[in-house]
Amino acid sequence: DMLFDHDFLMCQSMSNAALIQDCRPQAWAKNMVSVGGITHSNSTNRLTHTSSGSTGPGQDGRVKPDLASFYDNVLAASNSSDIATTQFSGTSSATPTQCSTIGLIFAMWADGIFGNTVGGGSVFAERCHFTTAKALAINSAYQYNWLAGGSNGNMWRIRQGWGMADLGRLWD
Questions:
Q1: Cα distances (angstroms) measured from residue 136 to each of 29, 33, 71, 96, 108
Q2: Which residues, including other chains, have CB under 8 Å from residue 43's CB and lie 6 or more apart?
Q3: Across 45-141, where does the E strand assignment appear?
Q4: What pLDDT score does 45 carry?
Q5: Region 141-156: what's the mean pLDDT?
Q6: SS3 of the chain: helix, strand, coil, percent, to 5
Q7: Residue 170 pLDDT more than 90?
Q8: What are 43-72's pLDDT values in tens digits?
Q9: What is d(CA 64, CA 99) in angstroms, rounded to the nearest whole number?
Q10: Is the alpha carbon torsion for 78, 80, 86, 92 positive or negative?
């Protein structure tokens, strides 16, 4: 109800319970943007990526997580004065990656790039409904395809949702 009452998009990590259906209860919520993990091992070749973190489907058969992102070797700001960055991993790194992408979708909407009418207000004033942002992220996502011949045979939709939000594809 909170999401609809305030037109608010919320993201939730699926947890790090490996390839089993065991995650935070909040991630199963219907209108939550739940995020799973993808191990990329510093490779840009998507055919070598594999599933990580908790996976779906939901107990009721729904596709969960909604989206997925990098689970390993994500650089983050360090709290050390000696090191500028540190490695960050898990669905706790995958979730803010996908949610920041959705934040950019709100900015794209506020700039009117989808042909929508804008009045020149802030991103917050011009934002689309949260359901529209979620739909744009999901429908433009890169869908990992385990049939494509790579070693990522555990990347089918019921494990990694609709894929990784792809702003380039959405822009095009």
A1: 19, 12, 22, 17, 11
A2: 49
A3: 50-52, 67-70, 74-77, 85-88
A4: 87
A5: 69
A6: 35, 15, 50
A7: yes
A8: 888 888 888 877 777 777 888 889 999 988
A9: 16
A10: negative
Helix 91-110 with 130-139: angle, nearest 10 deg: 110
Identity of the residue numbered 63: V
**Residue 7: which of 161, 158, 146, 126 has the closest Cα?**
126
Q: What is the DSSP string of 92-119?
A: HHHHHHHHHHHHHHHHHHHTTTTS----
Q: Yes or no: say if 128 and 111 are a contact pair by the CB < 8 Å rule.
A: no
Token duo for residue 37: 């993990």
Counting Cα atoms < 13 Å in the Cβ hemisphere of 25 gives 0
Contact criterion met (CB below 8 Å) for 150 and 47: yes
pLDDT score at 128: 95
**What proportion of the chain, given as a percentage, has pLDDT over 90?**
39
User: Cβ(65)–Cβ(36) under 8 Å?
Assistant: yes
